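Running co-folding for zinc ion.
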Amino acid sequence: MAFHGSARPAVCGNLFPASDLGHKYFCVSGSGSTAACSVLNGSQNPAGPSHPVETPRHPSTIGGSTGGGAAVPQPHSSPASEVPCPAEMEPDRPIGYGAFGVVWSVTDPRDGRKVALKKMPNVFQNLVSCKRVFRELRMLCFFKHDNVLSALDILQPPQIDCFEEIYVITELMQSDLHKVIVSPQPLTTDHIKVFLYQILRGLKYLHSAGILHRDIKPGNLLVNSNCLLKICDFGLARVEEPDSSRHMTQEVVTQYYRAPEVLMGSRHYGSAIDIWSVGCIFAELLGRRILFQAQSPIQQLDLITDLLGTPPLSAMASACEGARAHILRGPHKPPSLSVLYMLSDGATHEAVHLLCRMLVFDPAKRISGSDALSHPYLDEGRLRYHTCMCKCCYSVPSGRVYTRDFEPAAERPFSHSYEESMLSVWQGKELIHRFITEHQQGKRVPLCINPQSAAFKSFIRSTAWHSSKVSRKEER
Ligand SMILES: [Zn+2]
């Protein structure tokens, strides 16, 4: 693939004018859309004039704030002890709900930067939730990739006896692909190419680390106004299971994006389930409507076979008996893939060719993330991304200096051996507490939440409401 350093694609401009989407999602009270926009464009000090971030506040005034704006920093040392006093952080407003947590927008009092705060609820309810949260936390701290959301910080936990919740700080993104797709914002072929390129670039990294995301959907693909995309929400992610005799849960992936092997009750599956979801999202970007929008898992399977045709027996090898019988009982369906050309004008031969390599019934024959990245449809997306969006290449007066590896794999696989050693909730609590404490060592002044503030109380109310809805959704 050739790169031409002088190319300056138009897609790198703002996808969302501040008046369209930006202020709706993150403006704090008292600051206008301009301030929100400057945050999104990388300004490091968007706290606004009413909350000077340099002003220290004595601990005795804790709880005086009514919230809604930037928190102010605590003095870095307390006269009563030598231990540094953590800087306080106040929740600002909710911005999204993941599979297992609620995300709020907050201002980091150490630098005034707007970041996202995620509360991981019901951590110590039972051993399964303990393992799941520890896995997600370790993943967030493990990730080092521009298209995968990672932890910037973890709030300082209280003493272990009072340790009930975990709060993680991540980068704050402006919107997500679901909101973009349902918005009136025009989506050009250039946008679609650069989004798809980044989804696959992030997935290649995750899969190379041995991680299955298991809930790839437009709402879990965060985007910024400059079209930068990051995969988020690892609440359902797990390490790939090499032993095909071991059972994996089928309670994964939002139904519209669920791969046929999961719908057909396969007890074992791999990274191909994420690629299926990407295929559904690719079609949704082109057509701006959900590709397979069914009311039930059985209807979901029917819609898939309407498009792909009745699968051969070999493609249903791992299916459960009932699902196989359902397919064989029905009429024989021919494939109708040509309807994909009608998704939009952007559904060119190249686009449909790649789409048909992702939407393959048999997971063994579905394209991998790494092979999909070699498809010519993504050449332009790669060029645009590395010409003006990435952090891996840079410009010099004579042109652009490109990285040697456009789509890097993980340096090492993600290890989950610690899960075996977690035998009780209390032991899990100790492990997680130690992990967070060690993670923070040698880093900046630790952060904590101001539990007395009105903002924190409404934050807790919203998270309690949400966690009661999601607490049933445990996984193996
Ligand atoms: Zn680059």
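Result summary
The longest helix spans residues 189-208.
Residues 1-10, 17-83, 465-476 have pLDDT under 50 and may be disordered.
Job closed.
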